[in-house]
Amino acid sequence: QVQLVESGGGLVQPGGSLRLSCAASGSIFSIHTMDWYRQAPGKQRELVAAISGDRSNYADSVKGRFTISRDTAKNTVFLRMNSLKPEDTAVYYCKATITTMSGLASNYWGQGTQVTVSS
User: Per-residue pLDDT averaged across 86-99, rounded?
Assistant: First the structure.
């Protein structure tokens, strides 16, 4: 069993900042990639940022404002969000590609955390 638990969402004014966290736990042998997605009402889920080793990439809409980082020892990924805009409002999900102790590699998702940017 593997679990991903996100935290750090909330209500913030335009121009503000938030930091999301996602911690993986359970029968983990190795974590290959950890990503952040978001889904706004009425829209498809989209990739926001991804990190694998020392490489990261971002959606064009968040480049220069969001930073993804990872604490490998704690199986945790972070998303620092600066200069937030109302269009960043969405439920943010963490996804990780994990090989478990049984040798199976699968994608796992967190439950999501709401980010609302509004004055």
Answer: 97
